[in-house]
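User: I want to check something. If I give you two sequences, will you return the structure for each one separately, not as a complex?

Assistant: Yes, each is folded on its own. Here is the first sequence with its structure:
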Amino acid sequence: MADAYIVDAVRTAGGRRGGKLAGVHPVDLGAAVLDAIADRNDFDPAAIEDVIMGCVIQGGEQAGDVGRNIVLASKLPNSIPSVSIDRQCGSSQQSMQFAAQGVMSGTQDIVLAAGIESMTRVPMGSTSMLFKKEGLGTYKSPRLEEAYPGIMFSQFMGAEMLVKKHGFTREDLDRFALESHQKAKAATESGAFANEIVGVEVETPEGNIIHSSDEGIRFDATMESLSAVKLLQEGGSITAANASQICDGASAVLIVSERALKEHGLTPRARIVNLTVTAGDPVIMLEEPLFATDRAFQRSGMKIEDIDLYEVNEAFAPVPLAWLKHVGADRSKINVNGGAIALGHPLGASGTKLMATLLNALEARKGKYGLQTMCEGGGQANVTIIERV
């Protein structure tokens, strides 16, 4: 089977809900990262054979095959097709895996994987609420209700279940959240994000500015300030401070074949080593990255000691904590530049966003292998392993 290579990976800086990116249409936000890929790499963008766009809330301004609309709004030729996919929080990680599979199969040579989510302009759950308001029913069909009687699948409840199952405390979660903010602060101040962040021009009352710094980082976070945040459920452990932040953002990864490297004079930054996707319990839901990682190691013949850095999406603090515990990983190697608790989780954009951060961190530390995984709605998880070249 042919190899697939990552040539470039970019993201926008995260925008808080109602923050600096709130005035940017999601189509234009997505176009910014596609333009950046075209600008940063010296090849004819018409050679891109497909754009696979991850997006979770595909309604309103993100409706109508948002990926195609983003291509049309970008600098890319309108001859490039696009498809929009939804694997919940793993949507753009799956877009990356589909892109890699197209290249590895030999049917495509250059594919752009990307993701978009404006959680300010197209709020989480808005499409479901529209159908409920109109009396058109919900996702819970009679047969699904029969299989899972009385259960409304909830990531929040899954997070609380994860806390109890793995024996974590509120202090454990807040400590991990603090570390996320501290690492994100250090990365920002050291310029670690400079090569991955695409500046986006935004309008402000004081005039136009370039948004190029993640808005969600609490530079003054302390255990005291985080522990003062109220619980989301009485008797629980999850708070807004130890969960991911609602975020606006876009990201993209350019994936090519060895033939494309030679024909277009491109320089690879990483090789795709393993692509895994699994599914399990849809109720506890958020635990699947643990078992998906087991499968990835089984299929690749690798072990945790082979991996230099890991990006495990911080949807809720118990997810990376449970993953660390299950696989016996080194805590100093996880989310080394902070994660979604500090940087935000723009749903459909998070998969390729995490890859941009993982790739740059791996290069900065001269590591060889990196692993990325995230929990997803319905009890699913993707794992992607890369080798820096």
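And separately, the second sequence with its own structure:
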Amino acid sequence: MAEAYIVDAVRTPGGRARKGGLVDVHPADLGATVLDALVGRTGIDPQAIEDVILGCVTQAGEQAFAFGRNCVLASTLPETTPAVTIDRQCGSSQQALQFAAQAVMSGTQDVVIAAGAESMTRVPMGSNWQLHQQNGIGIGPWPPSIQRRFGVKQFSQFHGAQAIADKYGFTREAMDAFALESHRKAAAAIDSGAFEAEIVPVDTGNGMVETDEGVRRGGTMEKMGEIPPISEGGSITAANASQMTDGASGVLVVSEQALKDYGLTPLARLHHFSVSAGDPVIMLEEPIPATRKALAKSGMTLDDIDLFEVNEAFASVPMAWLQVMDADPAKLNVNGGAIALGHPLGATGTKLMATLIHALKARGGRYGLQTMCEGGGIANVTVVEAL
């Protein structure tokens, strides 16, 4: 079978939603920033890019009307470059990467950009499915047939995160401690320059944003304990959940022939990718069976994997994954995760991939595994081999 290679992987800094440095940047311009960076850093002929597959969750307002195409039009890519926008919830740009790899491995295309962009400031989470409340028509995304089948009025990630915490017996203190460690690792990564190879600064017109803004230094368990729970009597709080963030990310995926034609040097090879789905109510637990499926299909074990990226949508998600998979916590989210660095929804998939690949390269590791919990009880798994 033909191979698919990642030539470069980049991301913008994570901007704090509503109060950070990226709030005045149109989301299409965020997307354009990473598209331009991939072309500029690799030196590839822009005319060679056959498609842009871009993930975005909240496709409304400034992220509506063929958002992926608008990112292309806002970039320096030629107007002849096609684009498509996809939504697999938090895994949207991870799925974009998998679609790009499928295109290359099938021989259909040789050069594809997989990317994601999301401004959670300018297009708030959930604003696309709440339109019925504004126009007085309809009831929202979940018809009575779904409500009857699953016994819920709507699916809630907050309910899912709390259900996982309750199922596995994770205390508020344990999740706060996990979150505090995420901030510690992220701060250490920033101080050591670990993100320099992956971050593309953003010119806002009023200056440059060059560093992730959500990392809280000097945090304590006492300070985290002051944050109220999201639901009364619960243990999930804003402190042990991912941060709402503005940002974009992207990877350049090419065939072996394109490596030769354009004189490119690969960073990584796509070793395995898959997707699975399960319970839409608890929702965020699916990375566990998805990882088992991926390992079985690829003939690998966790011992073969040098680093793991398990998205920190809520602390309970990677904590459950670690416990059930009996994985080595020293390999997990080594530069911090979404609790500290932010979760710009549709951009998080290729954002984590950029961090994973560069972390593998820096540590001399070979294989990395990334998985993501997603709305509706879906999870993607991608295994890459650093080259």
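Because they were folded independently, the notes below concern the second chain alone. The longest strand covers residues 245-254. The mean pLDDT is 96.
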